[in-house]
Design goal:
The protein is of the alpha/beta class. The chain has eight helices and seven strands. 41% of the residues are buried. The structure holds NADP nicotinamide-adenine-dinucleotide phosphate. NADP nicotinamide-adenine-dinucleotide phosphate binds next to helix 1, strand 2 and helix 4.
Length: 242
């Protein structure tokens, strides 16, 4: 069984990644935080398309919870290991820095940056022992360019970019790659409160992207064909660069 884990697979980009990984033959572990109904919907869509998987709930920001959930999965599946990890779970809590509260800062860093570290560290050993693994981290244009009102989110995503580049060099010899994709503005719940009619004037492609357009790139980086790509950050932004 070839197994992939997508954190935050219940909605948006994560759901699209789950479906496309499943279509390439992966048994997909759909992680979610609180939206069980949407996680069930993702799994139902996987099964409708002829694939299979399961739901594993944990909060990526909860250090103990991550280890407990993943170790328990491994105990129940002693013959298998998670060879593809997509660190997708993320949240926004925007505010200008002057008014940013500790809770807004800590929650965003804990979810995107610390969550990525904890989930990756937990699964890394098996990938190294088996000498095959693919890790894809979902970062953001905001982590490359910076965006006003997002010092927390930009810092978290820039941190994950640094993690990606360092870890890639630590483990390249073991046939485990680590890459990041940096979406611009993508149609999901996360961008539902944004004014697309105004923002799209800034985007050369003239529109927001779709979750599928991100997922296609993630699935390529998670494939055996991407074996010599590591430490890379791939922008998926309709031409909206810094
Ligand atoms: P979304 O629609 O808001 O979905 C977020 C997903 O993350 C949900 O599945 C959610 O689970 C999960 N999640 C949030 N906090 C979590 C936690 N603590 N533990 C486990 N899962 C958690 O967001 P999206 O737009 O698809 O974003 C996915 C990723 O792409 C994020 O990392 C985001 O920063 C990044 N990104 C998005 C855009 C964009 O324009 N949409 C642009 C650049 C980067 P529940 O359903 O249980 O809440």
């Amino acid at each position: 069984m070839k197994v992939a884990l997508v954190t935050g697979g219940s909605r948006g980009i994560g759901r699209a990644v789950c479906l496309k990984l499943s279509a390439t033959g992966y048994y997909v572990i759909v992680n979610y935080h609180s939206n069980e109904e949407e996680a069930r919907r993702t799994l139902a869509l996987i099964r409708e398309n002829g694939g299979d998987g399961e739901i594993v709930q944990f909060d990526v920001a909860d250090a103990g919870g991550v280890v407990k959930a993943l170790e328990s999965w491994q105990e129940q599946h002693p013959a298998d290991y998670i060879e593809v990890l997509v660190n997708n779970a993320g949240i926004r809590k925007d505010s200008l820095m002057l008014w940013m509260e500790d809770e807004q800062w800590n929650k965003v860093l804990d979810t995107s940056l610390n969550g990525c570290f904890r989930v990756t560290r937990t699964l890394l050993k098996n990938m190294l022992v088996r000498k095959y693994g693919r890790i894809v981290n979902i970062v953001s244009l905001s982590g490359l360019k910076g965006l006003p009102g997002q010092t927390n989110y930009s810092a978290a995503k820039a941190g994950v970019i640094g993690l990606t580049k360092s870890l890639a060099q630590e483990i390249a010899r073991k046939n485990v790659t680590v890459n990041a994709v940096a979406p611009g503005f993508i149609h999901t719940d996360m961008t539902a409160d944004m004014d697309e009619s105004q923002l799209k004037t800034l985007i050369p492609a003239g529109r927001f992207g779709t979750p599928d357009e991100v997922a296609d790139a993630v699935v390529f980086l998670a494939s055996p064909q991407a074996s010599y790509i590591t430490g890379e950050v791939l922008s998926i932004n309709g031409g909206l660069y810094t």
